[in-house]
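Q: Convert this sequence to structure tokens.
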Amino acid sequence: MTQAIDNRKSLRQARAAIEAGKGLDVVPLLVSLAESGDAEAQFLLGYMYFADCDYPFPVSVAREWLMKAKEQGHAGACYQLAWFPDAEGICSIDDRASAALLIEAGELGSVDAQRELGALFATGDWSEGKDEARAVEWYMKAAQQGHAEAQYDLGFMLLVGEGVAADASRGLEWLIKAAEQEDYSACRLLADIYADGLFGLERDARKALYWKERCRRQGET
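A:
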């Protein structure tokens, strides 16, 4: 148990090093853990390829590590594989295989995948086409995990009744959640809603001023 706890701590530190652009410093640790079967270490060795740091292996090795992590049900590995570059170095969700990987990532709990699935189903700009009801479902999953942009998107779809029956009250709740995380679009829309009484909601000059001020402060940062 103690060793497992130590490994988790080391992996958290390794991820922080990768995010700081110092991935090469933790490669020996990650390789050791990855070769012993640790899914998170396998994922991080593949993830390094996408991070802003030097990568010491061929691209094919990055994909191999991600595949090993995926086989153990690692959501992040599925997400990165969905966006893995093709032979021409292009990253896109434009085929069924990539779409399936993105959906698998979302089902495994990747909040980034869930939000992207919401956007892709909302616009239809991918191989699976447009399905606003499914967009709402995916936005909801990401929103419930605290993803601010997904909260805004979900709130807007509830306000206008896209993919779901219009529900201004619920839409407002999600917009406020997003705005409280400093989502500018949510703050701007809330200001307009309260200033003009949009979507059948009552005007409230005090709340309109409050959200306008939040927008202003965000614009200064």
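The chain has a mean pLDDT of 94.
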